[in-house]
Amino acid sequence: MDNSISTTEKSITIVTAYFDIGRGDWSTEKGHPSHLLRDNQTYLSYFENLAKLDNEMVVFTFEEMKPYIRKLRGNKPTKIIIIDLEKKFRNLLDEIKSIINSNNFKSKIPDKHKLNPEYWSEKYVLVTNLKTYFVNKAIEDFNLSNDLVAWVDFGYCRDNTTLLGINNWYYPFDDLHVHFFTLTKDKFFLFFNNPNFPHTKNKVLSAILNNRAVIIGGVTVANQNIWREFFNVVKNCQEELFQKNIVDDDQGVYLMCHLKQPNLFKFHYLGKNSNGEQNWFGTMQKFHA
After folding, report:
1. 4 occurs within a structural domain
2. Global pTM?
């Protein structure tokens, strides 16, 4: 079986995933903040924008989503991988659930943050912690066409302004680092001199428990070999957090990864958008050759 995905233009391979973790029921009537409510159709409407890119793409999802993803991608180079999330990761889900339901963990979270899903939804915690796993699975299973591989959230492109007419996303990120994108400004990116950037274990743990976003989790880029190294660092940090009876989404885990191995990472500041707001969704606009 030929597992190659053919493309000729200089490009970045995109890996993404979508699983139904129940967000269609996270309504205000059930006590959830209004911004958390997103059903499958909402995510497909977001993905419709990302799917317009000609970049080769590997998508991990569940069976019911496959025909919709295939239709949106058309003839563009795409592999769709079906996973039964609850079956494959049952033990991990149970472990996460045990932590988030423990009084020990709950006591560490300030009341104002307890409605954030990384503190109560085991499925949300799981899928956000599987990003490096999915990328490395794609690298292992397929002969990807590009050395550079990006994780991009399935719903990252909320509207067509995220791409600004880009057909093939490419930027010459170096091959030596994991490339993170941040909203925390530091003039020289000397994080150990930056009071706004967590650079000690206690400050990282404080950021994790206080829902402090420094690294965006929506896009991460690295060379295939660096992704393999990054995957191992992520696993070690996840295990360390488990031992402390703590879980978090990818943003907190990535902060710990940087603390453990700072030379592996390079940060790119996203700045603000035209409305003066933090530019969460500006990665492809700002970093495009």
Report:
1. no
2. 0.93
